[in-house]
Amino acid sequence: MNDLSRAPEASSRRSFLSLLAPLAGRREWLQRNAPLVAPSAALVLLTTLFALLAPETFLSAGNIRNILSQTAVLAFLATGVTFVLLVGEIDLSVANVAVLAGMLPALMFIGHPISVPPFGEIVLPGNQAVAIGAAIFLCGALGALTGLLVSRLGVPSIIATLGVMLLADGLSYYWAQGLRVYDLMPAVVGAGSGFIGPLPTIFVSACAVLLLAHVVLSRTRFGRYVYMTGANRVAAQLAGISTRRVLLQVFIVAAVLSALGGMINVGRMGSADARSGTELLMPAIAAVVLGGTSVFGGVGGIPNTVVGLLLYGVLNNGLDQIQMDIYLKPFARGGFLIIAIVFNIVALNLAARSRARASEAPTPSSSPPPEVPEPSSGGLSS
Amino acid sequence: MTMTMADVATERPTSARLAGITKTFGGVRALDHVDFDARPGEIHALVGHNGAGKSTLIKCLTGAHVPDEGEIYVHGVRVEFQSPADAGHAGVGVVYQELSLFPSLSVGENVLGRNALGSPWISWGRIWHVAREHLRAVGLDVDPRTPLSHLSLGEQQLVEIARALFSGADVIVLDEPTSALSPSERDLLFATLHRLKEEGRSFVLVSHILEEVIGNADRVTVLRDGRRVTTTDARSTTKSELVDLMLGTEAQVLRATYEGNVVDLPAASTAPVVLEIRDLVWHPSVRGVSLTVRRGEVVGIYGDLGSGHFDLAGCVFGLKRPAEGTISVNGDAAATRTPTRARDSGVAYLSEDRRRALALTQSVAHNMTLASLHRIERFFLDPGRENAVTTRLINELRIANATPQRDVGALSGGNQQKVVLARWLVLPPRIVVLVEPTRGMDVGAKSEVMRIVEQLKRQAVAVLVVSTEPETVLAMAERVVVMHRGQVTAEYSACRVDKRTLVEAGS
């Protein structure tokens, strides 16, 4: 089947790659960076499209600020999801953990009793540090629970995190008792809706978290273990890496980042309740995958997530700016999402295939060479 | 016309016959005009050393390979198999070394396999009934509704045979059927084969274990270097005769294989013991092994695939948890609890399958520093330092086509193996366990690996070379241990030893 599709199509796709080559200067560079280049190209195309369709509104300063702040909360969750996908797992609990982390300190701050059944009630009004610390600790513990379920007991992460998602949802629901809190602590309000100079605090802190996560993933031992565990878990074990510990740490990181995002989201919205914010789950995962991070682990990273977040932000916002039947927009959003991801996957496959071809050439392997003669590489060399 | 002549030539009717089979892979002739036949009501064994062409031959018979030249006859009719399904339709079934059953399905479903009962609707009653009949035929009295995973390996092997019978096979190829079986399971298997043989079925038995060939087969064919050496009566031959035939008796072959591999082993080392294995048991393949390795000593463990030496090596690196016995590194009995602890106690491990040991989509540098990152880098990585370490190792081990940034998947097999080796040289280790360190490598790469082992020895590192190739063990080790069926059957030091001795002790 592969052989049939190979000859005519491959050459035309190669010439497509060669069209992009002058942009990068070198073909090898392009192959190596295909997971980042493809979503970036999709971002540029989509931005151009919306700029043409809605020239007045889409590229206005106000709208750009809007896209960035809409995306900022998502950035916290998506950063956590990036760690989890890089290690080859999935986390469905990020949004509900975020909601819990927004809800709990808001309730504690106003002196709402937090009942912990066997131990009684906690009432600690007015103490910001304790309230925030408790939320981060609790969410970290939930992350550790996921991590232990996945790494020690081998529970598939899609199920383990589904369970933890319901736990987190249940806790916020139980503690809030239907309450919506408007009287928020100053720290949360400042983080969610303040400004640092001309820039929204929320945007600055999202950038800081992304940058920090990038440094951790690309410049620390832990980050390296995350990639290697995701790329080949058995290989990491055979090199003496404790992949269980890496998994545990990754789920804790994801939960704590989600908790930070949840608190900031409350500050941005101006109120806390047990139901708003849960809709962030799918966008967080979609943004990471759109950015080109592989769901199978080991490939991708924070630069991809940044592009993915912008891509998702543009997609989400752009449709609101153009003239279109409002009832058709959700459908169009789905269509664009699928087109974007197909674009990424096709580009990645092309890069993988041309890399495989390149590695076949200089080192003859033991298997017999393919019968099909290589199509003349005219498109590339000319 | 040719058919009649052929029948006259073999004098007896054959249920399957291969004539003049030739198969070439990338310029290497794996089979060179090989003749082979299976008669109704017999077990015909196929033996030969690694690379002699046994598995290529049975793959031609079972449709997995299409021969370049030669003819295949089933019950005297010329056939051309394009796929294993073709062979199945013609009545040739195969039971591979790695069982190809579905552990989560019932025994009955496994017996029937993809062979439907002729109707799109599933009648469970009929399935259980039909399956029960075929299970009885192979001497298995289990409820067909039992999940397959509840059966022992030996029973699963019988289920595979029942499946082959159900699919209508009357020529059944068994590829190393006993390598994972316990002695009682093996007896049960052979009793079943003898019974089915009396009913007129033919079996082709591929085995490393010569005693079981002599004890159970009717005829035995010996392959060497892709050629058929002889076909003889199995009962009148001896193990020693078969080993001679497998290794070759012609003068030049003698020189190449015997004398080239005669090694004078030195007296046993008296350096302090680094690795001590005592009465180690790991189910089902390691049955009470004791072994010590001293500083700067290179010990070879030779054995065939079923001998358990790979699993022993896995225990030493903490990948497998022994059921009984101890492994101590420098007197520490907890040193090999987990791979991480083994690594931190100075154990290095090279697995037999390098593709498992490498993250192929990651760079050479990332793969090379994987085991030593905690030693060469602090919490924050210094790419310059990592690059320097990697570049030094690439040059030292002469890893062709490698740069630190290149994907390790782009390297050739031998060079990938060197990357895995290099990973452990950074540390440096106290004990290096090398499982099949040179399999599939060309001569140049092999001598490189030997040079590295030599260097490790000089640095007083204890080295354990575990292999199914006697040449590999002889080329590197100064003391040789032979394992067979989970136990040490021979140990050689301070004496002259050759390939033949090892092969015989290990079969």
The CATH homologous superfamily of the domain at 263-505 in chain B is termed P-loop containing nucleotide triphosphate hydrolases
| Number of helical stretches of at least 4 residues of chain B | 20
Side-by-side strand order of the widest sheet of chain B? 6-7-8-3-9-10
Instruction: Specify the CATH class of the domain at 263-505 in chain B.
Output: Alpha Beta
On the 0-100 scale, what is the average pLDDT of chain B?
A: 85
Shape, principal axes of CA atoms of chain A: globular
Q: Top keywords for this entry?
A:
heterodimer; A: 382 residues; mainly alpha; two-stranded antiparallel sheet; B: alpha/beta; Rossmann fold; 6-stranded mixed β-sheet; globular
What does this structure look like?
Chain A is mostly helical and 382 residues long. Chain A has a domain at 79-278. Chain A has 15 helices and four strands. A two-stranded antiparallel sheet of chain A has the order 1-2. In chain A, β3 and β4 form a beta hairpin. In chain A, α2 packs antiparallel against α14 (329-360), α7 (186-193) packs across α11 and α12 crosses α13 (302-321). The longest helix of chain A is centred in the C-terminal third of the chain and has 32 residues, at 329-360. The relative contact order of chain A is 0.18. The model of chain A is unreliable at 1-15 and 360-382 (pLDDT under 50). By secondary structure, chain B is an alpha/beta fold. Chain B has a domain at 263-505: P-loop containing nucleotide triphosphate hydrolases (Rossmann fold), CATH 3.40.50.300. Helix content of chain B is 36%, strand content 25%. Chain B is built from 20 helices and 21 strands. The chains are: A mainly alpha (382), B alpha/beta (507). Chains A and B meet through α9, α10 and α14 of A and α12 and α17 of B.
